Each structure stands twice: as structure tokens, then as C-alpha cells.
Amino acid sequence: MLSYDNAVAVNGQTPASPTNISGARTAVPTTSPKVTRVPVPAVSGTSDVHGQAMNGVQTNGQVAPVEHHIWLVTGPAGCGKSTVAKYLAVSLNLPYIEGDEYHPKANVEKMSNGIPLTDADRWDWLTLLREESLRLINAGHAGVVLTCSALKKKYRDVIRVAPYFVPNLHLHFIYLSAPEEVLLRRVAARPNHFMPPSMVASQLSILEPPSEQEVDVISIDVTRPIEQVEAEALDRVLRTMDRVRQ
Ligand SMILES: Nc1ncnc2c1ncn2[C@@H]1O[C@H](COP(=O)(O)OP(=O)(O)OP(=O)(O)O)[C@@H](O)[C@H]1O
Ligand SMILES: O=C(O)[C@H](O)[C@@H](O)[C@H](O)[C@H](O)CO
User: Which residues does UniProt assign to the signal peptide (predicted)?
Assistant: First the structure.
């Protein structure tokens, strides 16, 4: 069941909710969550040096509205979410939220032991990722880059609620697709990661690849070398931002 237990700050104000009253949080990051913003030059015209508002005075003297974006890099284990998300975050000078670091300890333990998560295991985690994205945007960032497997449509729909909370907020999924053998090879070759290769099959068994009706999804074939994947991802992001601005 969807949970709205955790209140989201809207324009700096936190609405009353059962969570505010009890002070309890249902899910907390297992480790120090990775919310990083790498101080490199922004891609021209996308953000200022603080990675903040992408507005500015247009040639007609009018101030353009601030457009906010959540770039959610999605797909099954090993598809390259973290790699691509870090690249986008650096290129766009935006904070990066590593979804895996927000799983409760029990989820990580399950996955480490080769036990797939259930819907119930994922609900609070998904809500937490949505909240954390909104928190950073409400704190003044123009946008965020977020990784989250979001394997089913109903998981993506949990995040799709985000734009209700912030004016001019746009959510985009960047879905990385690769066949099982490629995922297996990449997961098996990756050192020091909690996810065993045996979990790839279960990820694919529940995966609902985004349909054409999910018009907020950019799909990218990631069987190609990483440089090509990153270049395509950035190009599609920049073109999407242009479209939104027009
Ligand atoms: N296009 C690519 N070509 C070759 N190797 C890649 C490519 N993309 C990612 N990799 C490598 O595959 C491995 C998995 O990538 P990464 O950790 O980014 O995936 P992920 O989707 O974040 O995985 P998980 O969700 O399981 O954490 C890494 O070792 C990474 O360097
Ligand atoms: O929904 C899930 O089953 C999980 O989020 C997984 O996708 C892992 O966290 C990730 O892939 C790590 O390897």
C-alpha cells in the first residue's frame, strides 16, 4: 500500500502528518547517504555556479520561470545507473542521490543473501527517495540526479507524485536497458558490492520495462561502451531541458 506517512516540506513549510506528530521515520539510510554535488563548471546555460536556479533574464527583458528537474536513472541491477548518474550529476552540476544508500539495513541484508525484495520492502524506500529529492530542491537546488531501480510501473508512480509538491518541477526517468547476459557479466565483475549475480534473474522477472504511454521516460540501450552511453544520456537530458524551457 502506498504510504504518505512522511511529510514533505513544501516551500519550506512541513505539513502536519502522523510523522510530524510522532516524530518517527519509517525508513532511514543504512549508511551515510550520498548526496554529493561536485564543484565543476556547469554545462552552459543549465545552472549557475551554485547549481541553483536555471532562470535568467531573457533577451526580451522578462525573467524566465525557474524549471526544476528530477533525473531518475533507472533499470535493473548492473545496468549502469550509478555510473551514468554520477556522470550526469557532474556534467549538470547537480546533487546526486544514490538510491542504494537509502535502503534500510534489512533490505540490504536480504539482497546480500540472495533474497529478492518484495513490494512491501520497497514502499518506504521509494517514498524516502521522493522526499529526499524534494528536500534538496526545496533547499535551493535546481534539480537532482537520483538512482533507483524502479522496476515496476507502480514504483515509478510513487516518484511521479513529486511534481505535485513544487511548482515547475519536472520528473524524467532515464531507463537503461540491457539483456540478461550483459547485466550478469557486469554484476559478476563488480568488486565489493552487496548484490550477488544470482539476483539478476529475479530483477528481470519482475521488471516492467516502461511502456510508450510512460512519456516521461528516456530509454537508452546500454550495451554500448560507457562513453557512448554517457554522451547519449547527457544529450537527451539537455534536449529535454530545452524542450521544457520553450
Ligand atoms: N556501458 C557500460 N559498459 C561497460 N561497463 C559498464 C557500463 N556501464 C556500467 N558498467 C560497469 O558495470 C558495473 C555496474 O555498473 P553500475 O554499478 O553503475 O550499475 P548499477 O545499475 O548502479 O548497479 P546496481 O543497481 O546493482 O548498484 C560497474 O562495474 C560499471 O563500471
Ligand atoms: O529494487 C530492488 O530490487 C533494489 O533496488 C535493487 O535493484 C538493488 O538495490 C540494486 O540493483 C543494487 O544492486
Answer: none
Residue 140 CA, ligand 1 centroid: distance in Å: 30
Helix axes 226-245, 81-92, angle to 10 degrees: 50
**Beta strands at 68-74 and 35-36: parallel, antiparallel or unpaired:** unpaired
**Complex ipTM, two decimals?**
0.97
Residues 200 and 77: beta-carbon distance below 8 Å:
yes
H helix runs in the chain, sequence order = 18-22, 81-92, 105-112, 119-138, 153-159, 180-189, 200-206, 226-245
Within a domain: residue 24?
no
Q: Is residue 155 part of a domain?
A: yes
CA distance 213 to 80: 24
Tell me, using a 6 A CB cutoff, whether residue 83 lines ligand 1.
yes
Q: In angstroms, how far apart are the furthest CA atoms of the chain?
A: 60
The domain in which residue 227 lies consists of 31-45+66-245
Q: How many CB atoms lie within 10 A of CB 62?
A: 8
- Dig out the grid coordinates for 75 from the structure: 533499470
Among 183, 124, 150, which residue's Cα sits nearest to residue 70? Answer: 150
Mean pLDDT of 107-129: 97
Cβ of 195 less than 6 Å from ligand 2: yes
Q: How far apart, in whole angstroms, are the C-alpha atoms of residue 141 and residue 135?
A: 9
In the chain, the number of structural domains is: 1
Is the per-residue pLDDT at 59 higher than 60? Answer: no
Which SS3 state, helix, strand or coil, does residue 174 take?
strand
Ligand nearest 119 Cα, by number? 2
Overall residue count recorded for the chain in this entry = 246
